[in-house]
């Protein structure tokens, strides 16, 4: 309560000071009235801006020549000038020439000029000839003279255009009705012709859908014209490719000639069909191998361990051999030592025979290796050429193959050496046939290696490589056949038998010492050691490849057995294709070849001749289609509608209309009928929330604007600081001083609102539907605006004044006062709802035209909330911001520019 009491004491002190000072009193009264003058002058100036348009000079000149229609002279330009003499809406100036008109507009003597050309009447009546030409009115305007005058002049030109249209409609309809009158008198004598026309119209209407389809086909064909032209261009390009077509035709004939050979080669599919049971059995065997592969891996591991154990034994025997030889002729000791060596050799015998078997079996893989390499080389030759990268790959492939052949040959030679030593130790020739076969096999492998090494991958041609590849495959086949002829098991058995006998001989060395001495045991052991070591290397190589082989076997099993049905079906389908479709293909290929030989030359000549004709006629065809499409698109809908309406009228007329009545209708008064055609409808206008004049309509905008200007103006003259003597400063808080001065500002705002609204109504005579609410709404708006401006200036000083001016500028542009906000830019449309000015103008408009309370309450609530928020913020923040604002103001005062 003390705060309120102190506030009103300071408020009273404010007004006492004002009335004690005459100058202050004068300024207060002036600041109450001056903003109202701003509104009153603008409202009065815009009271009726179109009232004096009769003084706006518009030059008019007609060069129109009369046109003949139905035996009458029609001069519409003359009628237009006659009507304009009676038109007082604009200041029409009738000049004597086109030059005078143009000069007057350029000089600014006339705001605008209207010129009717020579053929104006003729063009206007061109619809009667079927070749319609729209008449033109030349309208020129000098837009730099004034911003509004061009719009008023354009309105006059539009009015003139409407007037001419009205005159034309009257003239045309009057003429047509007169013609109908003449026709009416001749109907009786033309009933037969009328009946024929009627039947024709009805028949056409009944078949209109079929006709419509034809028109759509024309449109479709027209739309496809670009596509047809593109295809024609491609067809023209095709002629350039005829030599290639000739070449393809030649290949087609060659293919037909080779058809018997192709058919014989394709016959292999029948063989595959016979082998289906074997393929299915192979699938089962492959599945068994896949399932048992783990045991194969284990067997391989056992074989390698066994071979390594045998190699260890042989090495032990070799280590003991020098001691054995030192014994010399000491038979007893020789027998004892050789017996130990023989026992160890007996233990290594299974490994030795196993290694011989492995070496021979590895030789037999040469054929499959060659097949694999040949397949890889054939893949390189699929496009019948070798790129640099493919030649590099070929070179690497041949080198690897050559190295493999060298290792195979070395293994064979090592095996031959061992078998020779074993045979020499045994003293017989049992192994000689096998040794000869192995020597022959070594020779074949050497020849194959030499042939592979002779290939120059960098320069060899594709044809040469194919020939060499066939030669290599033949040599590999001989090698595989030779290796396959060796009975590996028999060789192993013979070696095992010889070694057993040799060991027995060594074991019984006491009785056969001289025979034992004849055995070159060291050489035998060395060759055996080399063979076993070589076999271990081969086995370990195979062991390293086992995981990949296992995966390949598994994949092959999945591929074969997983798709067995597909494979079988494919073979059967291929066989069916061979038996049933291939003969048809052969027949059709024969027909095609016959066509190429017999008919194609003539067709080729026809194509070239036809294309020449089409290219010559295409422009004419395109032009005709364009015209037909234009007719269908522009005129056909109206023709179809008119035809349908005519048919419906005839059908209805046959039931409801008497021809006598029709004749009577055609004889009606032409003038009355033409007037009806010119203005068939009268518009009844209903104004909602009517406002008497433009000044009254502009009053809400300028009233709201003057209230904001009054608040800004008063804040620029009056200070927001409350001056107190030293003895009184401690009695009142800063909030109390702020609130008291705020009341003074608000009283000024309310006074400004009362003066401007009462002056609008009583001084200017503004048309206001709800004057009482107009005053109340203005008081609310003044209260809100003054509250906003006072708080901004009190808190922020000159910065607050600047903010108030910025809001004023934005309000003029974005408040939607004089023009709808929808015609403003996107930025102003965006800020429009956030401007207090927008809701102030809307609220004053409600009282001006008639209140629609939902809209009014919305504006009242928004403005009330703005006033409350600014009041609360000002009272709360002022004690904290006031000192900072003063410091800021003091700094600006030091510039000697700002007060």
Automatic annotation (TrEMBL):
Subcellular location field: Membrane
Sequence ranges assigned to domain ABC-2 type transporter transmembrane in this UniProt record: 26-171, 678-875
Pfam families found in the cross-reference section: ABC2_membrane_3
Keyword Flavoprotein listed: no
Top-rank taxon: Bacteria
Record field: transmembrane: 21-41, 701-724, 745-766, 772-796, 803-821, 859-881
Keywords attached to this entry: Membrane, Transmembrane, Transmembrane helix
Membrane topology: Multi-pass membrane protein
Protein name as annotated: ABC-2 type transporter transmembrane domain-containing protein
């Amino acid at each position: 309560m003390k705060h309120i009491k102190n506030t009103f004491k300071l408020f009273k002190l404010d007004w006492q000071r004002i009335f004690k000072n005459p100058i202050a009193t004068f300024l207060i009264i002036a600041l109450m009235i001056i903003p109202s003058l701003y509104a009153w002058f603008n409202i009065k100036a815009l009271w009726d801006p179109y009232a004096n348009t009769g003084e706006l000079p518009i030059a008019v000149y007609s060069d129109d020549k009369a046109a003949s229609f139905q035996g009458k002279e029609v001069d519409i330009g003359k009628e237009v000038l006659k009507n304009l003499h009676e038109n007082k809406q604009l200041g029409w100036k009738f000049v004597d020439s086109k030059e005078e008109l143009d000069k007057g507009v350029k000089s600014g003597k006339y705001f605008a000029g209207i010129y009717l050309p020579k053929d104006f009447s003729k063009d206007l009546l061109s619809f009667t000839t079927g070749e319609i030409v729209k008449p033109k009115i030349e309208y020129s305007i000098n837009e730099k003279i004034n911003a509004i005058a061009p719009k008023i002049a354009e309105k006059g030109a539009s009015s003139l255009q409407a007037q001419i249209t009205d005159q034309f409609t009257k003239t045309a309809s009057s003429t047509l009705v007169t013609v109908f009158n003449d026709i009416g008198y001749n109907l009786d004598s033309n009933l037969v012709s009328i009946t024929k026309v009627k039947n024709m119209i009805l028949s056409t209407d009944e078949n209109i859908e079929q006709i419509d389809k034809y028109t759509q086909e024309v449109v479709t064909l027209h739309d496809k014209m670009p596509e047809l032209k593109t295809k024609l261009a491609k067809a023209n390009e095709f002629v350039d490719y005829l030599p290639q077509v000739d070449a393809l035709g030649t290949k087609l004939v060659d293919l037909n000639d080779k058809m018997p050979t192709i058919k014989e080669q394709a016959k292999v599919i029948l063989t595959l069909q016979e082998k289906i049971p074997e393929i299915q059995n192979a699938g089962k065997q492959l599945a068994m191998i896949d399932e048992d592969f783990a045991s194969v891996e284990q067997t391989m591991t056992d074989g390698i361990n066994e071979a390594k154990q045998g190699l260890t034994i042989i090495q032990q025997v070799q280590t003991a051999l020098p001691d054995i030889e030192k014994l010399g002729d000491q038979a007893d000791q020789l027998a004892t030592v050789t017996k130990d060596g023989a026992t160890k050799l007996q233990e290594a015998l299974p490994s030795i025979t196993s290694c011989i078997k492995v070496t021979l079996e590895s030789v037999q893989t040469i054929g499959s290796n060659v097949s694999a390499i040949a397949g890889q080389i054939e893949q390189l030759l699929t496009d019948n050429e070798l790129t640099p990268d493919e030649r590099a790959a070929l070179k690497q492939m041949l080198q690897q193959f050559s190295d493999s052949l060298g290792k195979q040959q070395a293994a064979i030679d090592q095996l031959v050496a061992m078998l020779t030593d074993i045979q020499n130790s045994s003293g017989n020739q049992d192994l000689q046939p096998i040794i000869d076969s192995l020597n022959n096999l070594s020779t074949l492998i050497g020849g194959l290696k030499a042939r592979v090494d002779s290939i120059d991958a960098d320069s060899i041609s594709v044809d040469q490589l194919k020939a060499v590849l066939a030669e290599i495959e033949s040599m590999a086949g001989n090698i595989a056949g030779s290796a396959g002829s060796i009975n590996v098991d028999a060789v192993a058995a013979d070696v095992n038998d010889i070694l057993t006998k040799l060991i027995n001989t060594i074991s019984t060395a006491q009785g056969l010492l001289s025979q034992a001495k004849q055995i070159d045991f060291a050489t035998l052991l060395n060759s055996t050691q080399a063979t076993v070591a070589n076999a271990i290397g081969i086995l370990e190589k195979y062991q390293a490849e086992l995981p990949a082989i296992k995966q390949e076997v598994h994949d092959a099993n999945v591929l074969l057995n997983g798709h067995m049905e597909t494979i079988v079906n494919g073979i059967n389908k291929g066989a069916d294709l061979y038996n049933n479709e291939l003969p048809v293909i052969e027949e059709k290929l024969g027909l095609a070849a016959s066509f190429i030989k017999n008919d194609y030359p003539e067709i080729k000549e026809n194509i070239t001749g036809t294309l020449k004709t089409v290219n010559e006629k295409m422009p004419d065809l395109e032009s005709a289609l364009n015209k037909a499409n234009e007719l269908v698109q522009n005129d056909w809908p109206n023709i179809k509608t008119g035809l349908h309406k005519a048919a419906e009228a005839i059908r209805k007329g046959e039931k409801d209309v008497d021809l006598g009545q029709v004749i009577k209708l055609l004889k009606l008064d032409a003038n009355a009928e033409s007037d009806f055609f010119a203005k068939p409808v009268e518009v009844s206008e209903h104004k909602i929330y009517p406002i008497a004049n433009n000044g009254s309509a502009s009053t809400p905008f300028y009233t709201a604007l003057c209230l904001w200007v009054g608040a800004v103006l008063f804040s620029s003259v009056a200070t927001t600081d409350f001056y107190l003597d030293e003895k009184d400063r401690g009695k009142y808080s800063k909030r109390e001083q702020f609130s008291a001065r705020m009341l003074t500002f608000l009283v000024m705002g309310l006074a400004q609102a009362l003066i401007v609204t009462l002056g609008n109504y009583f001084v200017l005579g503004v048309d206001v539907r709800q004057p009482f609410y107009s005053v109340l709404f203005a008081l609310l708006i003044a209260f809100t605006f003054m509250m906003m401006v006072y708080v901004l200036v009190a808190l922020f000083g000159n910065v607050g004044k600047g903010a108030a001016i910025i809001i004023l500028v934005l309000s003029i542009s974005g408040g939607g006062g004089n023009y709808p906000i929808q015609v403003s830019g996107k930025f102003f449309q965006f800020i429009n709802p956030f401007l207090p000015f927008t809701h102030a103008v809307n609220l004053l408009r409600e009282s001006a035209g008639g209140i629609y309370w939902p809209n009014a309450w919305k504006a009242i609530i928004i403005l009330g909330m703005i006033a409350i928020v600014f009041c609360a913020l000002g009272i709360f923040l002022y004690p904290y911001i006031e000192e900072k604002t003063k410091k800021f103001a003091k700094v600006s005062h030091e510039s000697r520019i700002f007060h």
